[in-house]
């Protein structure tokens, strides 16, 4: 197994361990940190193994961080319908 795939597996384990602990801000700060760390890992996987595997790992990461994705989709839907607020 290559280093980017090992890092992706480690990222998933760390994300699940972080989710087990209580948080005052419902883990939003942790989610931002995990997203910032996960993007370079995805780029490395895409560069080393191809886009298809990078997309598969991205879907797995999106399932772990589903609430930031849900809010992003709601914001984009509102923006496209003209009812959304700007950032």
Automatic annotation (TrEMBL):
The chain crosses the membrane at residues 29-47, 52-73. Keywords: Membrane, Transmembrane, Transmembrane helix. This is DUF2484 family protein. It comes from Aliishimia ponticola. The lineage of its organism: Bacteria, Pseudomonadati, Pseudomonadota, Alphaproteobacteria, Rhodobacterales.
């Amino acid at each position: 197994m290559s280093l980017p795939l090992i890092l992706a597996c480690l990222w998933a384990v760390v994300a699940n361990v972080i989710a087990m602990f209580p948080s005052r801000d419902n883990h939003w700060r942790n989610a931002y940190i995990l997203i910032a760390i996960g993007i370079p890992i995805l780029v490395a996987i895409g560069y080393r193994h191809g886009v298809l595997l990078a997309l598969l790992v991205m879907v797995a990461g999106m399932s772990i961080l589903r609430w930031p994705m849900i809010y992003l989709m709601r914001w984009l839907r509102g923006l496209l319908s003209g009812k959304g607020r700007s950032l």
